[in-house]
Amino acid sequence: MKQSKASKRLAMSLVPALLLFTTGCTRNMIVLDPKGPIAEQQRDLMAISLALCCVVIVPVLIMTAVIVWRYRDRKGRKATYTPEWEHSTKLEVVWWGIPIVVILILGVITVQATYALEPSRPLESDQKPLTVQVTSLNWKWLFQYPEQGIATVNELRIPQGVPIKFEITADSPMNSFWIPQLGGQMYAMSGMAMTLYLQADEQGMYWGSGANFTGTHFADMYFDVKSTSREEFDRWVDEIKSSSPALTLDGYKRLSEPSVSQKQFFSSFPEGLFEMSVTKYAASHNHGLSWEKAKRFELEETTSGQ
């Protein structure tokens, strides 16, 4: 059976909509299920921005469909034929005025959110922030807890309701540190230490990953984030201290080599390891310890301890 021109046009107009609604809908939208104050504010910002954009987009889509249908080529068409029409002040005000107002509102909201969600801005809380030093390696994540003196690979554990101060760097190609349910991304770059404050308001297991392409095993650069009570977190720290080996400079050097790693736990790590990673590629400019100096420092400490 032959299709009419109108039905063909209608089918073609539905293709983009079908693609929009069938692409990626099977995935769990964890970005829209926040578990912390930063992620909640970011979700609200996305929702407000989407609603404002729909003020322009939805009427345009509806008018497009109406115009295509009303002025389609068919016999007995009753639409008014006005070949001399060229201007309408009322219509010009509508289709220029509304978008301009929307853009102004979006601009004000975006500026306010930019300052309110500044990544390095400490979170308001009666709890003391917990510092976690994050190092992006090929293809794994190293987490150092300077206050607790422990380190982990591909597992991050944090206490519920406590602000977490992440200090982020890379000892490998640039990556992006991301825990979708707690907040947005923060780039990890060699030679720099970026600061990001996040907080988990609920206990549970969350998903974290690298969000920047870094080569062959980029897809394996994910890690578990577990939010627990403070008491459980302290027990976890004590367990690692009593049952895990120490991370040495030689161990870190092996860890930094390109490879995929399972979860690892270390009862201690060399003092200043994070700072050494940050300044590793700037050592020739006297901005930090070179690898050889750091190694010699560790040997001196070991000798003095004996």
Care to describe what's here?
- With 306 residues, this protein is an alpha+beta fold.
- The chain folds into two domains: 15-71 and 87-116; 130-305, Cupredoxins -  blue copper proteins (Immunoglobulin-like), CATH 2.60.40.
- It is 40% helix and 19% strand.
- The strands form two sheets. Strands 8-5-1-2-3-11 form a six-stranded mixed sheet.
- A hairpin with a 4-residue loop joins strand 2 and strand 3 (150-153).
- It is elongated, with a radius of gyration of 28 Å.
- Catalyzes quinol oxidation with the concomitant reduction of oxygen to water. Subunit II transfers the electrons from a quinol to the binuclear center of the catalytic subunit I.
What are the salient characteristics of this protein?
alpha+beta; 306 residues; Immunoglobulin-like; 40% helix; 2 domains
**Estimated share of beta-strand residues:** 15-25%
Distance between the termini: 92 Å
Biggest sheet, strands in spatial order?
Answer: 8-5-1-2-3-11
Helix content: 25-40%
Sheet/helix structural class: alpha+beta
Our count of helices gives 7
Tell me, rounded to a whole number, the average pLDDT: 85
CATH architecture type of the largest domain = Sandwich
The Cα radius of gyration reads: 28 Å
By CATH's scheme, which homologous superfamily of the largest domain applies?
Cupredoxins -  blue copper proteins
From the spread of the alpha carbons, the general shape counts as: elongated
Protein name: Quinol oxidase subunit 2
GO biological process, one term: ATP synthesis coupled electron transport
Pfam family, one: COX2
Family: Belongs to the cytochrome c oxidase subunit 2 family.
